[in-house]
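Lecture 7, part B: from sequences to assemblies.

Below are the input chains for today's worked example.
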Amino acid sequence: MIKKNEVLLTIPCLPEYVGVARLAVSGVASRMNFSIDEIEDIKVSISEACTNVIQHAYEHTPTENEIIDIKISITNDNLDIVVKDYGMGFDISVLGSPEQKEKSKEKLGLGLGLTFIENLMDNTNFQSEIGKGTTIQMAKTSPSLSH
Amino acid sequence: MITEFSVDIEEKHSIPTINVHGEIDIYTCGDLRKAFSKTTEKETASFILNLTHIQYIDSTGLGTIAHAAQEIQQKNGHVYVICTKPQINKIFEVSGLLTKNISLFENEEQAIEKIGDQQ
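Predicted structure of the full complex, as structure tokens:
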């Protein structure tokens, strides 16, 4: 039987709330059969996604008027996380390009946020529409419980 | 639980030690950057970065460390990172930062020994 549970969280697009998203996702993930290391991977991934929004989704520095919508769902052994912003959006074909890495460096980043997410999660998907925003979806399957 | 973030600079060895507590992310990396600037503007460019007591780090924290390392590179400076948590070591490895003038040590003694070798 498919059992699906969802947790919805909306946070202000501000640095001090990234830790809140991390705490929420680790709370959900710890209800599943993930190891401590895997939970850490998930925490890093959601933080990278939220950090990306704060650093890149808006031309201006985001204020409390901008928000990040987070949906965490559990379907059987699968943890699915969607991080959605309503910023300016971008052309996803530039991902991983030297120009994008350069832009990231200007903001004192490493251009590694998405690389981390791709490395640490099982499945990732990026969607973006210019003027409407970006959605990052990521999933990780927990080892099955032995019955 | 989120442990309160703090950073302090200790002068007990031939090079300064920066001790960090708490979680290093986009919110706290500004304070870390300030501690790095305080240290790197001095004559001795190298420093020990003690991450034994941090609970978390992501690419923003690594970016901050990488920029400090880059700044001190011209003075032949090196960042000696002390870290025991496998998860944090893994983040360093995924980042590819360890090929530069940043290296990881399991404890202070190991780092001090290495510093002794290089001086």
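Note for the exam: The first helix of chain B runs from residue 29 to 40. Keep this in mind when comparing with the next example.
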